[in-house]
Amino acid sequence: MKQIEFAFIFLSLVSLVYANNIDIPILIGSEDIFRASPAEPNISKTNDKKKEKIPVMWGGNTLTQEERLINGFQMKVFILGGGAYITHKNVKLNAREIEVIGEDALIGNLKGQVVVEDKENGATLVASKGVYDKLLGTVTLENHPVLIHKKDGKTVRISCHSIVRYLEEARTVLSGKVVVTSLDFQVFGEDAVYFEKEDRIDLENEPFLFSENRFLQGKILSYYVKEGSITLEGDAAIYQVSYEKGNENLEESRKNSHEDKNKESVEKEKIRILSTFSGDRLVHKNKASESFTSMKGNAFLHREDSEFKAEEIESTRNNKLIQARKNVTYLDKKNAYRMQGGYLEYDKEKGYSFLSESPRIFFLDKKTLEEKGNLASVFIERFDEKKEAVARGNVNIETQTAKATGEFATYFEEEDKLVLEGNPTLVRDGTKVSAGRIILFPSEDKAVLTDGLKVLNDDKKN
User: Fold this and answer.
1) Comparing 108 with 5, which gets the higher pLDDT?
2) Quick check: 306 and 273 in contact, CB under 8 A?
3) Which DSSP string corresponds to 64-112?
4) Is there a contact between 409 and 391 (Cβ–Cβ < 8 Å)?
5) Of the N and C termini of the chain, which has fewer Cβ atoms inside 10 Å?
6) Cα distances (angstroms) measured from residue 329 to each of 230, 342, 386, 420, 421
7) pLDDT in tens, 121-172
8) Residue 224 pairs with which residues in a beta bridge?
9) What is the pLDDT of residue 212?
10) How far apart are the first and last CA of the chain?
11) Is 180 in contact with 156 (CB distance < 8 Å)?
């Protein structure tokens, strides 16, 4: 009797279903008997169950529901309007209208006034249209979108041709012509990746950076937003314009000035200097109280009046302390000398330089810059204000026709005069002499001996 009742109930249910044309849903068990075909799109079932569990909410002021055939599948489409939104975990996607594909919001087509808000990472993206993919965890924005990043009181604005943002990774891939703008500079390049959790933007394809009186370029540029730091990899170069006080023709300019105001303006007049700084890798960091700049690998600083080379040149204390290491060479064209050694330290505030590790000074012809003599010692100091260089310890001097030794020597740059002291000796034409002081003029190949001349030997053959 029970079997007859069960059969009757089953037939009644079947008749009801066919009479009302209701689609019976496919039930998928725990063993996933009905597996999705590989040809099905992303909006079909997926094996990534972790991404399926992503909490998504969506809504709006108006809702329209319809059925559509999408990639061969009959799907429910919900059209949201008037303050439409989708939330992907802590990220909120806003638009004037959103088409939600599937009840689980597997795909969302965002149309008009698109705004993606990631408050946790301080990022806001703005575009005219976009596509949200729940399974991939991405939102793709087209038609020149803009990313605005605000964190720790700093704002960075990035515009490009298109954006793919990975919502859970807080990573943004920017394609096409990329422009990064901050309060201090602008960066221009093509294709970039923004790692927001690391506060780093990477730009490839030889981007270039503009700031006040400065232009930077390299093969790869990384900008650290929070620190305001920059790294340039591969053929890094800085082109900088600075203004320095000029002393030449100052008196003549004063004579031509007829008013006190004109005289004052002439005294304050500065000369425009163009400097280029190149190398393999540049690192620039902005800290709370000072900045740090380092050029590593074939570092080369060029100005019209000087050249500076080393394996590494490092600037600290807001460019007030400069340190150079390995194969250091400094050429002063104006005063016609070249310094070289293994380590150089320059304190700009004190106007003091220290050169060590086999230091040498080469004395040059002022017109041709050809070598006229050289000096070697244990270490060399230079004083900007006096325009003097002091060599200490085992000093050896060579000119075109003579050699001299002593304990220390002072080089007066403006006079091209070298004063050797501390048991100095001079050898010329086989004759060795000593004196209290020996004064040499390297460019003229002339020597003056004072304070007790003594001939130590005379090997000259008659």
Assistant:
1) 108
2) no
3) EEEEEEETTEEEEEEEEEEEEEEEETTEEEEEEEEEEETTTT-EEEEEE
4) yes
5) C
6) 26, 9, 21, 23, 26
7) 889 999 999 999 999 999 999 989 999 988 777 888 999 999 999 998 889 9
8) 200, 229
9) 79
10) 148
11) yes
